[in-house]
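Q: Here's a chain of 117 amino acids. Please give me its 3D structure as tokens.
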Amino acid sequence: MIVTLDIDDERVWDLLVSAFEGGANYWIRRMEIATQPTEAGGGRAWVPLKGGALRVHVADRDVTPLRLLDQAAIARGLELMSQHHQDHFADVIGGTDDAITGDVFLQLCLFDKIIFG
């Protein structure tokens, strides 16, 4: 059975802020805007939600050092989380997510799996 859920931009923004401000700091070297958003928003976490993209530079030498975070990556990350990491996805749906949830989400968006932590 397939169930479709609508996850609003603010929930995704919360996850990205959690990742950027703590959860993923140990593996992100830096970020920069790759494509400007089509709408103004609240900081770099808003860029991929508004039609733009972020370049995420990874600090680990064993990983391809540059990844792109855009709307397609976010959709893929949510899908992977719902299929393979239901405990974290339940935290997103229930509003009990934290920095670890944000880190897992961002890794799924960028790498399609958890490779750090």
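Q: Can you summarize the key feature?
A: The first strand starts at residue 28 and ends at 35.
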